[in-house]
Amino acid sequence: MVRPLRLVNIRPTLAGLAAGLLLTGCGYLPPLPERPRDVFTTPAINRGHAVTADQLRQVTPGVSTRADVQAALGSPSQTGTFADGEWYYISSVSQVRPARALAVRDQRVVVVAFDGAGTVREVRQVEDREMPRVAFVTRETPTPGTERTIMQTLFGNIGRVGPGSSMTPQTPGSAGGGSGR
Fold first, then answer.
1. Are strands 45-48 and 120-126 parallel, antiparallel or unpaired?
2. What is the rounded CA–CA span in Å between residue 36 and residue 34?
3. Residue 20 lies in a domain
């Protein structure tokens, strides 16, 4: 009694698997209210301290002091290198382009200059043409354990625990293990 071989069409199964894999790629989309108009547009990455026009109106040259500026604008992103006479508020808006390249859409620098008495001398916004593009550091601090592969993690401890290892029974009152005698 030999059973005849049955041929199975595997194409519908493969098509279903391919469709399932394609649909899982849609899981990264943000919720509808926050979703950009273009499905392939990534969200904007805001960095630094963005100063608004309303905040800048609160700072008056010749009247405002350092404390007033800090209350209105917050702590500066950077101060003068050799003298504390200028405060810099630096911000940028960037976005990931196709092929994972980071593109800066908007970069702003607001400079608040102080006189010797600590009163605001000048408030100006550096124009785009007069400032160089600042490249932010994209390196990440390595986390211990992330360098190992899955196989190293699974099989790395084999042989470390077992007979002959340093695991000896301890009794109450013994300092370093052993039988406590």
1. unpaired
2. 6
3. no
Angstrom CA distances, 169 to 24, 159, 160, stand at 51, 19, 17
For residues 88 and 80, what is the distance between their CA atoms, to the nearest angstrom?
8
Record the tokens describing residue 42, joined without a space: 């990534």
Q: Is the pTM of this model over 0.85?
A: no
The token pair that represents 3 in the structure block: 């059973």
Among residues 98, 1, 139, 112, the alpha carbon closest in space to that of 49 is found at 112
Beta carbons of 59 and 112 less than 8 angstroms apart: yes
pLDDT digits (tens, 9 = 90+) for 167-181: 555 566 655 555 544
Q: Is residue 7 part of a domain?
A: no
Phi, psi of 62 (to 5 degrees): 85, -10
85 domain-assigned: yes
In one-letter notation, the amino acid at residue 100 is R
Q: Are 79 and 86 in contact (CB under 8 A)?
A: yes
pLDDT, tens digit, for every residue of 137-146?
Answer: 777 777 776 6
**Total number of domains constituting the chain:** 1
| CA dihedral of residues 50, 53, 54, 58 (deg, nearest 10) | 90
151: helix, strand or coil: helix
Q: Which domain holds residue 56?
A: 38-130
Structure tokens at 15: 């098509």
